[in-house]
Amino acid sequence: MLFTWDTTNLCIIFPGWHIRSTTTLLFSLLGVILLTAGYEFVRDMSRRYEASSAEYMNSLPIDGGNSNDRSSSLLWSGKNAQQAETKVKLVKAALYAVQVFYSFFIM
Q: Strands, DSSP E only, in 1-107?
């Protein structure tokens, strides 16, 4: 990275995104701010999903709904906890991948 005060023909993220005037400098500044706000939104969404999925996984019956006592949920209806855990892990992994891509993109 090279720090420079010269903003003439400065390339930002893409080869086609160049700063050629004060107006494009201001629009680029606004664009970079929006990109970083989007990154923070993805991070917040990921944290919220992790919290809600942890709550959901803790609410599932441990034995997969096969017990006959009244404390087990009647709504479970054959889903098993392993499938739910796999789905949660896949969504978490996808959110993490988006987060890493986004962070490298704005770096």
A: 10-11, 18-19
Which residues have a Cβ under 8 Å from the Cβ of 73 and sit 6 or more positions away?
A: 61, 65
Helix (H, G, I), strand (E, B) or coil at 19: strand
DSSP 7: -
Rounded mean pLDDT, 58-77: 58
Alpha-carbon span 101 to 103, nearest angstrom: 6
46 in Cβ contact with 95 (< 8 Å):
yes
**pTM for this entry:** 0.67
pLDDT reported for residue 71: 52
For residues 74, 79, 84, 86, the Cα torsion angle rounded to the nearest 10 degrees is 160
